[in-house]
Amino acid sequence: MSELLNVHDVPGTTAHDAIVGQGYFPVITSLENNEVLIVHRGGGGHIGLGGRLDVIRSTDGGETWGEPVTIADSDRDDRNPAFGLAQDGTVVLAYHWQGNYNANGEWNPSLHNTDVRVVFSTDGGQTWTDDDLINFTPINSASPFGKIHDIDGILHMLIYSGSVMGDTTDTLRVGPATTPTYILRSTDHGRTWGDPTLVALGLNESDMAVLPNGRWLFVARSEENDEQAIYTCISDDQGRTWQLLGRVTEPSEHPPDLTLLSNGWLLLLFGRRHPPYGVQGLISRDDGLTWDARRLVLDDTLPGGDIGYPSTVRLDNGRLITAYYTAGTSEKQWEIYTATQAACKVVCYNEDALIEAWGG
């Protein structure tokens, strides 16, 4: 077992339930004055037609949270959010509009009844536009995921699955699986999307960061069912072409959440979907080329494998806020259609204190 540092032993760390009874697949973003939004799945369990997307707000840096406000609630399963803030202040939400269910509500992927939808807010998430079909129709069967990144005024959204676009002769391949993962771009603050880059085949849920040296680091969950670990890729041309670095977690440790710290270190968090179940992290001090053997523990008390999906934001004051979810019980770890003991949890911790505790 690798050496562990529990974040709750780091001075200044606090932990809270942001919402109870729902909270699947949270994605976090920050506004001004330590105001934070989390979008998450409510209305049902891990899957199901009752699924909707709600947003909760904190105005005190993650210490307390308001009541949920529904953003998307259709007759389909509204799920798998990608969420972020554009340079002009627009809050952008893209999500997977999933209709692959039989009349009795049972999951049936053979129906091929999916879309990608987008909604916006121009007042800090107080009000939202009606949902609309994304303009870039080749990815309508794909799924957005995670944080939408604004890089020099261009939004970058990570998506996976769906049809393979373009020539894949020189595309990275991880394992035997063929699921594509893409970067999609917007030059108008999320209103329209296009200019896709195929990063790899065999990877799905992902995150990325622009490094101090100008390189881009991409981290993603492998599709292969017997593995489902995190791999890293690097780009020297602003995400147009990619080279595989390697696998950095054990099987059943996913999906990734990547945060660039102010000192240049990288914090990679993930759900640990094997005992002890919880949320752990790795730190790299060389731009993602290697990762310390030591692990950061955010939570090691979760009941089973339907957990995790961490999402982190760094506030201007150096406070880090990580959201993640838990569901199920130790006796029955997976309740696919029912949100049994579901919750979105948050851990708030100081970047400087974490770096010092790590030995920086």
Rg from alpha-carbon coordinates: 19 Å
Query: How many domains make up the coordinates?
Result: 1
What structural class do you assign from the helix and strand content?
mainly beta
Query: Which residues form runs of ≥5 with pLDDT under 50?
Result: none
Distance between the termini: 22 Å
Q: Write down how many β-strands occur, each being a DSSP E stretch of 2 or more residues.
A: 26
Shape: globular
Strand arrangement within the widest β-sheet reads: 10-9-8-7-11-12-14-15-13
Helix content range = under 10%
Strand content bin: over 45%
Q: What is the name of the CATH architecture?
A: 6 Propeller
Question: What would you say this structure looks like, in words?
Answer:
The chain has 360 residues and is mainly beta. It has a single domain (4-358), classed as Neuraminidase, CATH 2.120.10. 2% of the residues lie in helices and 48% in strands. The protein has one helix and 26 strands. It has one helix at residues 351-358, and strands at residues 4-6, 14-20, 24-30, 36-42, 52-58, 69-72, 77-85, 91-98, 114-121, 132-133, 143-151, 154-160, 172-173, 180-186, 194-201, 203-210, 216-222, 230-235, 243-247, 253-260, 266-272, 278-284, 295-299, 307-314, 319-326, 343-350. It has a nine-stranded mixed beta sheet with strand order 10-9-8-7-11-12-14-15-13, with no helix packed on it. It has a five-stranded mixed beta sheet with strand order 1-23-22-21-20, with no helix packed on it. A hairpin with a 5-residue loop joins strand 21 and strand 22. The longest helix is centred in the C-terminal third of the chain and has 8 residues, at 351-358. The model has no long low-confidence stretch (mean pLDDT 96).
